User: What shape does this take?
Amino acid sequence: MQTRQLGRTDLHITAIGFGAWAIGGEWRFGWGPQDDADSIAAIRQAVARGMNWIDTAPAYGLGHSEQVVARALADIPTAERPYVFTKCTLVWGDDRVVRHDVSGPSIRREVEDSLRRLQVETIDLYQMHWPRWASQAEPSPGSVAEAWETLADLQRQGKVRHIGVSNFTVDDLKTAQAIAPIASLQPPYSMLRRAIEPEILPYCAEHGIGVLVYSPMLSGLLTGAMTRERVATLPAGDWRRNNKEYQEPQLSANLALVEVLKAVGAPHGKSAGEVAIAWTLRHPAVTAAIVGGRSAAQVDGVVGAADFRLSEAELARIDEALPRA
Assistant: This one.
């Protein structure tokens, strides 16, 4: 796969990377039951097919995703290992309830826990998962500024190579950037979630901030494998059951869009999911896309998006098919 420079860092990453959210298994924002053997096979297949980075987080399965990533990479020679990106600011206790904490002491504990779970000496990209947590009634300990000062110090100590953010607004980016350079931003982005286009993407382009978009296939909805019947039988522990895009009236409109994506991809031998990913990569401010996979077969179904480019006519056809508000 071709690589792209991540912001102004020395990291050159493939246009798609493996997303380890779903392999965390069951937790409040989980995807339902997941077999670790399938997860390990998916990660190894992603590396074998050329992806050179993995994105995970402590919150994914309350530490489980990071542990599975470590197991998957344990037998891969050092020279062939992908970069490992993880996050901080979402923590939990014995009650297994996720809370938001952006205080310095909490983040310092988190980085040590992630280093241990991932079995690495240095994290390649350490990201603030959220600047704030809407579902938390009480204020989060600390502040964005305190958290970013802590991450900058961890970088100076060599515990992390680069520091980035996730789910930040432009104002949040400005706050952090006044303290230390931001390597990258990780926002949600797909043809059905375009809120970052007017302000956030131009700001990142202007300031040399890499952009790693997540959910380019809207958490599986645009893969081409999702059907109305499959949506109806999603496990009780799958967070998507409560997502409005998986409910009517949006569901029917979204599935109709998928049929157009299939038609666009068919002449190129590409799946609807690969078309959806390529659509996000068309934007010049987007460095790369995070693509999840729960099995080796799912990885094979999307890997072709990395070097696929949509024509202007194909982009116009997709635009015409997008559901209108």
Summary: The longest helix spans residues 250-265.
